[in-house]
Specification:
Elements lengths: L20 H14 L4 H7 L6 H12 L10 H14 L3 H6 L6 H11 L1 H39 L32 H9 L5 H6 L2 H13 L1
This protein binds a DNA duplex (21 and 21 nucleotides) through helix 3 and helix 6.
Length: about 220
DNA sequence: AAGGTCCCCAACCGCTTGTCA
DNA sequence: CTGACAAGCGGTTGGGGACCT
């Protein structure tokens, strides 16, 4: 069965995979003679056994004159960060502000350089959550010990001075009702740990230029 | 040295949008 | 208005090289 693809040509027969130098030459010559556009006729007339889609992609991302090759500059990286904050994954829109760079290139760059940072941030969040749980469990455990001791001496009320932990005993046999009213602020504790421990990872991964740019962005926002 | 893992990037795929008869 | 086709876009995949164990 012959399946039709988006560009109105049969799937059978089109070459796929990496382009050869000969194919590049054919495509470049054809486009320089006839101009960009009408990609399906490029596919038919140029002698290339490639779909129009494939021809367009190859031209736009690789053969088009004026394309920059190689690593993005810190300035370009900064522009990407800033524009992505505005437009999200509108790669072609972002690409318009980076002459010589393609949407595909920017998209790939974002995925490899910033997604991993996002991933590491997620790991940090997970770690933080686990620590919170551990902290909570430890406090509950401590609390049970305190309660069991307290239950021995008193079954009424126990309160400590202001600004410190406070708890209310209603029924020593019911765990739920014995939950403390006030706990130490776990988040504030995590904040103190976070500077050189938990949240340090993101900035270790980010290069200086990125950090500088993000700081600059934060300062302007 | 060899096998495994990670990273980068070219290319493909499917969906959406624009244009025209 | 509608359907067909062309073109564009963003997400995803897969190959190959670099790096690690």
């Amino acid at each position: 069965m012959t399946r039709m693809l988006g560009w109105g040509m049969p799937e059978q027969g089109w070459r796929k995979g990496p382009w050869t130098p000969e194919e590049d030459k054919l495509l470049s010559e054809y486009v320089s003679l006839h101009g960009e556009g009408r990609w399906s006729s490029v596919a038919r007339s140029s002698g290339l056994n490639r779909s129009g889609k494939s021809c367009r992609l190859r031209w736009v991302n690789y053969l088009r004159p004026g394309l920059k090759r190689g690593q993005l500059t810190p300035q370009e990286e900064g522009i990407i960060i800033e524009l992505h904050a505005i437009w999200g994954n509108k790669w072609s829109t972002i690409a318009k502000y980076l002459p010589g760079r393609t949407d595909n290139e920017i998209k790939n760059y974002w995925r490899t350089h910033f997604k991993k940072k996002e991933k590491s941030t997620q790991k940090q969040e997970k770690r933080k959550h686990q620590l919170q749980l551990q902290q909570q469990q430890q406090q509950e455990y401590d609390m049970k010990n305190v309660l069991s001791q307290a239950a021995e001496t008193s079954s009424e009320k126990m309160s400590e001075s202001e600004g410190r932990q406070q708890m209310v005993l209603t029924n020593p046999n019911s765990e739920e009702q014995c939950m403390p009213v006030m706990y130490q602020d776990v988040a504030s504790w995590l904040d103190t740990v976070g500077d050189d421990g938990i949240s340090g990872g993101l900035w270790n991964l980010a290069d200086d230029y990125t950090v500088a740019w993000i700081r600059q962005l934060c300062a302007t926002n």
